[in-house]
Amino acid sequence: MEHILSWLIWLPIIGMVAIAFIPREKEDVIKITAAATTGLQFLLTLVLWKNFDSGSGAMQFMERAEWIPSFNIAYILGVDGLSLPMVILTGLLCFLGIFVSWNINKAVKGYFALFLLLDTGIMGVFLSMDFFLFYIFWEVMLLPMYFLIGIWGGPQREYAAIKFFLYTLFGSVLLLVGILGLYFSCGKTFDILELMQVAPQALGDVMWWGMSAIKVIWVLLFIGFAIKVPVFPFHTWLPLAHVEAPTAISVLLAGILLKLGVYGILRVNYGLMPDGVYWFSGALAFLGLINVIWGGLCALAQTDLKKLVAYSSVNHMGYALIGMAAVIAASEANGLNLKAAQAGLGGAVFQMFNHGTISAMLFILVGVIYDRAHHRDIAGFGGLAAQMPIYAGITALAFFAGLGLPGLSGFISEAMCFIGAFPVYRGIVIASTIGILLNAAYFLWAFQRIFFGELNEKYTNLPEINRLELFTVVPLLIITLFFGIYPAPYLDVISSTMNVIIDHVVTLATFASM
Amino acid sequence: MNNLQSLSFFYPELILTGVIILAIIYDLLIDKSNSGKVGWVLITGLVAVAGAIWMQETRATTLFTDAIVLDPFSTFFKLIVILATILVSIVSLESGELDKYRKGEYFSLLGIVVFGLFLMVSAVDLIMVYLSIEIVSIMSFVLAGYLKQNTRSNEAALKYVVYGAFSSGIMLFGLSYIYGLTGSTNYFQIQQSLASMGPESHTAMLMALIMVLAGFGYKISAVPFHFWTPDVYEGAPTTITAYLSVAPKAGAFAMMIRFFNQVLADGGAMGGLNSSSLATLPWADILSILAVITITLGNVVAIQQENIKRMLAYSSVAHAGYMLLAMPVMSGDSVYAIMIYLVMYLFMNLGAFFVVITIKNKTGGETFDDYKGLGWEMPLIGIVMTVFMVSLTGLPPTAGFIGKFYIFAALIKGGNSFYWLVLVGGINSVISLYYYFRVVKVMFFEGKKSETILQPPKIMAGMLIVTAVPTLVLGIYWVPIADWVQSSLVFFIQTL
Questions:
Q1: Plot region of A382 (φ>0 → left; ψ -120 to 50 → alpha; else → beta)
Q2: Which helix (H) or strand (E) is B48 found in, with range?
Q3: CB contact under 8 A, B444 and A151
């Protein structure tokens, strides 16, 4: 129990080293090793959940070790209600991802080794409480992602891989500058918990280029994270990377990597620069609105099913941004509306999780049909409901979850985001309902074109979804249904931490020189 | 200290001289086919020299009536130079390019370059500065043209000579200005008289500075004094290219730091630019602009290269730019950052060139096309080359990132006026990603996926691992290096 977080992070690396020693002809052994590693990791995340004290909003299971004392860099890990659901999601999706990748037959050894390295990077970001460590893990994810897209991806994979890499590296560089700025302005420490206490005051009167350092550093970090989310206009890498990546990698990309951006904003921007939250929240809500509408319109225009799902991510992350912006409702200026702030922030964090499960499901389902038909052109199908009834049923549920049908988890989190934001950003919330409409339109229209109408002659022999594929989709479907009806377990885990964040933002804002 | 007394502090250099003479004589006695053995004489000798330097009492003093100094700062650079020379010498023994020629002179010349670099890193007198630059340059000209029957190698040597003569001429002219303005060739005396110099001489001093910068800029291949770099790097034997990109660059940086720090800043106290009495001369701005142009041009032109050696030449221009970025701050942190960067750069850059040598030995080619599918055919090469490229780009967890991290940290700590340099440096890393990863792309994404796996020759494989392991490990744990650099950050300071 003592080093459970370290185990979570380093277990995949152990698996990777083990795979490196397996002869490359023994593909089954490699796959089983990878499955065992991620399976064990997933079990560990469940153990973590069981032992997690949801009554406390503080950091738990902390680990601390010296690393580079001369630069005050330390190895600090911790988990709280904000990161715990993401950690569990990572464990789950990585485990399922191995099975989604089961049919990979090109350079199997390299694929699974890189997959596990990616797993370590993601886990590390969610669990690091030292900024330097956080940054290292943040970057460690890029390289395996580049290879996974570039070697095992679709026809345009090389371009997609380098574009993804260039975009995210650009963000990372800004992030690094911001981190260094914080380090030198706030008493030379990378310890995020310490910075959370020190930074709000220490940054108050620091000036960069004649502007308040809070604003500059906020924007630097925000762009760094926004590219990952992705927030309009930094989203153009996403459809390409999603479409070209192999199915399992799309699943991880949409399911977890996009959440890293939101997580980063909540952890770092919100935690370290409460003043910036007030300054920026209007823009945040507005960017959320653009994401919702732009993502929806783009999704509507797609002919490629995978691209449609990719743009739906842009659309869905918009709701989370709007929900996050609602946190200022709890401030004095906005009437101390704590309930709205809780709903908004909680909704955003819930949306992160729900989009993680729903988009993962959607990408797996797209992969299923692509493996059979070898294309993803929406107009090229038709009438598949009769041919593949089980697949049609599951896809229907997934699409409904995506469009936010009540009774499925997506509805609850989106509703929470809107409820939270409504008192403060009435206009934006009303405008973003157009997004919901678009959301329903593109999913239903796509469904109609694929599953109803005449069956395409070519596809009279299309086999039904198989057991392995069912095994990867059904758990996600159950989670979606369960949280759609009974979200309390999730909200219990996060609520204490959400209150801490809201309290932090509201009480530590100094409004100095802003 | 007078000449005779100085000799007892000069014994590493004396041992080195002995080794060089021994190498020359030994070469006369053996057959051409055995001439590679001279390399082992040099390598063993250098190990002995390193041992002597390591055991030397770490005190700061001047030698030979204030011509050179002995201080931890110079010791650090001497060890770096020895490390680079040993690594390159071992690879030179294996390099196919050199096999047609007698290798004896090659190693003797390499030894003389090391001697010149030793003087370069410890010179505190303008005459000694010039002499040491010339010793290094002239030996490098010969080494660049070592492949006598190869026209490109001849061209490289000739270009190198012409550019070298031109820039050292300009530098010498600049040095004469400084002498004329201050009446001395000694750093400490120059600093002293500059501090009391009236504003009427500032223009002349600025001219002198720019001319001196031409000499330094030539040695570290900073834009616009870099024009020789791509041609020489492409034409010279790859081992020499690797060497030129690291060792003389380290020496030149040491000399430059000493010059700006002791002559134009606060005489070695490293309190940062603001504490300097000579901040009225805009040398910091000149260096900033030089650095920005160097990085940007190096990176942008590297994108267009088809030959990997040439690409690495421009990349080394860009890396000189990164180190230059920290120069204008001239605080303890910035010098520290440059020194850390040099250590990291040594491993990653030598490693990348070693890969080029291995491939050249195998296929005879050095363009991107020759690397197609290499990652599948020779996985070891593919993986280590990826490590080097990642590190040169500056991504964690590799040594290159730590180097950049320290440079950026020094700039941010340096204050408001340097923040823009951080952004320039950062955005340039993004640009550099494109061409470094082109190598990775070609190795893994293109060409046929080969079924049989080839291994590089044992010694080359060993050298690749020797450079790749530190590139990775120093990216995760660099405390020993940081401590070493910290303890080496002591200049000899003379108050007159």
A1: left
A2: helix B37-55
A3: yes
